[in-house]
Amino acid sequence: MTTVLIVDDQTLQRLGFRMLLEAQPDISVVGEASQGQEAVRLTAELRPDVVLMDVRMPGVNGIEATRRIVESGGRSRVLVLTTFDLDEYAYEALRAGAAGFFLKDARPEELVVGIRAVAAGDSVISPSLTRRLIDAFTTSHPQRTSGALVLSPGQRRQLAVLTEREREVLAAVATGWSNTEIAAHLHLAESTVKSHVSRILAKIDVRDRVQAVIFAYDVGLARPQ
C-alpha cells in the first residue's frame, strides 16, 4: 500500500485528490495539510511514501517545505504539483529535492501512475517540461552556455569518477529519454542502462534522475539545443 500526504491550500483541490487516490486499491491517503509548515510536521509524524506538494501556498511555500522534508533525511519523497508549466518556482523545487513535477491539469491516470513511480524510487517529469525548465534556468544563468563554465571542487570530483560510458548515459538522461530510448540510442540492453543509471546516481550522490539531470547541466554534460 502506497501512503500519500496531500498538501494544497485549496480545500476543493485536496478533496479532489483524495477522492481520486482513495479510489485506488493500492493507495491510502494518510493526511492533508493546507500549508508548508504543517506539511513538514505531518511528514515527520506520518512518514508517508509520497508527499503530493503544491508550490504556491501562504506562509512556508512548497519549495521550502520540500527542502525541509528532504533535508530531514526521512523516507518520504515529494511529488510537486503546479498550475503552470512555466512556473517560476519549478526549477527551485527540483533543486530542493523534489522527486518529480506534475501539472495540475494532468490526466488522473497520469497522476496515479506518477505517484506509484515516485513511491517505487523513480522520478517523474515529462521531457517537454524538463526542456522548458532547463531553458528557463540557462536563460537566467548565461554562463552555462557561454563556454565559461566553472565547476566547484566537488563537481569536478563527481565528474571524474564517471566513466566515459556513464557520461554518455547521463547526457542521454538529461535529454529526458527513457531507459528504453537510451538503450536504443546507445545500442545497449535496457538492463545495462538501468545498471549504469544506478551507478551514476550513487557516484554523483543524488537521489534520482531529476537531480541527475540538474547535475548534468551544471557540469556541462548537457547543454540547451
From TrEMBL:
Keywords: DNA-binding, Phosphoprotein, Transcription, Transcription regulation. Gene3D superfamilies: 3.40.50.2300. InterPro entries: CheY-like_superfamily, NreC/VraR/RcsB-like_REC, Sig_transdc_resp-reg_C-effctor, Sig_transdc_resp-reg_receiver, Tscrpt_reg_LuxR_C, WalR-like. Residues 3-119 form the Response regulatory domain. The keyword ATP-binding does not apply. The modification 4-aspartylphosphate is found at residue 54. Residues 155-220 form the HTH luxR-type domain. Pfam families: GerE, Response_reg. This is Response regulator.
